[in-house]
């Protein structure tokens, strides 16, 4: 079983066995011609005042939410949990999926499926990763000039999903 799997290890192992032997290519090269998509996952973490937790990365000029890119054979939820542990030193219990958002290619970055999970309420989080300058709790309005517009749209949908109990699907932060 993949160490990155966020579910029950015994169930996951049984599910893998139930799939049968690894699939082979009947038409050589067909798999290598398929596009490669990336995925990333993060968490909407709030403080007790309702402000959103943002991380301040050293590698880009904008704020982001805790989370990051998935690794090979890692689920989005497992990636979010791993990144939160690495970035903030927290072992949180992620709640439900709030938003799935597709973002188009941007410069060196491929198009990506972005997953936002409910990260619950955490007061007093601190950065503990050298990739971060720190953390800030901000309202979405206060964060708006310091985050990408698509992230602002995605997080607005995440707050709506949290309040409504309904997961949202978006493309570049716009619900479709």
Automatic annotation (TrEMBL):
Q: Which CDD domains match?
A: NUDIX_Hydrolase
Alphabetized, the UniProt keywords read: Hydrolase, Magnesium
Needed cofactors, names only, are: Mg(2+)
PROSITE patterns the UniProt entry points to: NUDIX, NUDIX_BOX
Alphabetical list of Pfam families matching this protein: NUDIX (PF00293)
Nudix hydrolase domain spans which residues?
36-161
Record's keyword annotation contains Hydrolase: yes
Full protein name: ADP-ribose pyrophosphatase YjhB, NUDIX family
One annotated GO molecular function is: hydrolase activity
User: What is the native source organism of this protein?
Assistant: Lentzea fradiae
């Amino acid at each position: 079983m993949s160490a990155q799997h966020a579910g029950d290890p015994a169930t996951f192992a049984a599910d893998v066995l139930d799939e049968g032997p690894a699939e082979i290519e009947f038409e050589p090269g067909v798999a290598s011609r398929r596009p490669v998509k990336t995925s990333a996952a993060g968490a909407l973490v709030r403080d007790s005042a309702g402000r959103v937790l943002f991380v301040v990365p050293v590698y880009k000029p904008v704020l982001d939410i805790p989370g990051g890119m998935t690794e090979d054979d890692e689920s989005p939820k497992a990636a979010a949990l791993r990144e939160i542990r690495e970035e903030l030193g927290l072992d949180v219990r992620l709640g439900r999926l709030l938003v799935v958002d597709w973002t188009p290619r941007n410069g060196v970055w491929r198009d990506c499926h972005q997953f936002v999970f409910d990260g619950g309420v955490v007061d007093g989080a601190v950065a503990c990763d050298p990739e971060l300058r720190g953390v800030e709790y901000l309202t979405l309005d206060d964060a708006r000039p310091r985050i990408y517009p698509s992230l602002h749209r995605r997080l607005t949908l995440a707050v709506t999903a949290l309040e409504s109990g309904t997961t949202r699907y978006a493309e570049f932060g716009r619900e479709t």
